[in-house]
Amino acid sequence: xxxxxRVFSGVQPTGNLHLGNYLGAITRFVALQExxxxxxxxxxxxxxxxxxxxxxxxxxxxxxxxxxxxxGIDADKQIVFNQSQVSGHAELAWIFNCVARIGWLNRMxxxxxxxxxxxxxxxxxxxxxxxxxxxxxxxxxxxHVPVGEDQKQHLELARDIAQKFNNDFATSIKAKGHGEAFxxxxxxxxxxxxxxxxxxxxxxxKMSKSDPSDLSRINxxxxxxxxxxxxxxxxxxxxxxxxSEAELEDRPEARNxxxxxxxxxxxxxxxxxxxxxxxxxxxxxxxxxxxxxAKIVPIGDEMRRLLADPDxxxxxxxxxxEKARAIAEPNMAIIKDIVGFIx
Length: 343
Ligand code: AQP
Prior knowledge:
The protein has two domains: about 5-195 and about 310-340, HUPs (Rossmann fold), CATH 3.40.50.620; about 215-305, Tyrosyl-Transfer RNA Synthetase (Orthogonal Bundle), CATH 1.10.240.10. It is built from 14 helices and five strands. It has helices spanning about 20-30, 45, 55-70, 90-95, 100-105, 110-115, 125-140, 150-170, 170-175, 225-235, 250-265, 270-275, 280-305, 310-340, and strands at about 5-10, 40, 80, 145, 185-190. The strands form two sheets. A three-stranded parallel β-sheet has the order 1-2-3. It has a two-stranded parallel ribbon with strand order 4-5. The model has no long low-confidence stretch (mean pLDDT about 95). Adenosine-5'-tetraphosphate binds next to α1. Adenosine-5'-tetraphosphate binds near residues 11, 21 and 196.
């Protein structure tokens, strides 16, 4: 059985969708739809690994969907859906819980960061999160996964799980006529100048939905005044912008703002420094504000317009979920057969 190329990625409906999610993931999703069959998933099962208020979860699920559509993802041509409407994600995750090793999960830095000192009190779901992520991708035998830099380790784990499943069940896969390997080893797509957008308050920390300071991030829903205020207050250092990228090495805040500008303007950081090298931050921040407002505010406006009709968004998700199930269910039947379940 040959494996077709397919893109899969997801975003958690956990509120405060920000510029990092947009530049690291969503803009990549939009670009890839030109060349691939794509599946873009609102990963609500992942969201509940930390407690979510049910009403907020529903709202946030619609908000991520609205962001996908507002950014330019074509839900008629591609598959836009929410994870919990396709039961195969949870079913395959259980099988992968039995394939992945505890030692593999113990190495995951995101769990260590998110669980923090209160590890004993973290949910089992938070610990097993990477197995569910592997299931999301491999349920559709997706080959390419656009993500931000922070997801690299989870993608490597997904590849390890695919490889181990293919090895553990090699005889059965062959006997059932599925060739040498059932799952592809999915390729991470981590490209561009903004694969890791950093906090506006601390250039060594990732821009994150859960940062208690709203000044640390630009939200897709922010208006022009809020964006201007946040960029004005963004941490910088006293020196003017350098002429070369090498000189950004030890200047995390400057490097971050240059990377954001480059990604929004769709140019390289070198080109940004070609224009602004030697300039003071006040001048650069003014240009960055204008660019960010021009790119982000129309998306926020479109999201608000779409969110005014929640039923229409739910219909997009229902139609996408139906298309997703049409791929997932036959794959899941084969996987169960390979594992030895009577169906
Ligand atoms: N700062 C970032 N820079 C570039 N890409 C990023 N992504 C997240 N933060 C950045 C990418 O966005 C996609 C969706 O992320 P997610 O919502 O599924 O998960 P997350 O990594 O938990 O998001 P946050 O915002 O960082 O939330 P918290 O506060 O919970 O840690 C992914 O492709 C991710 O790489």
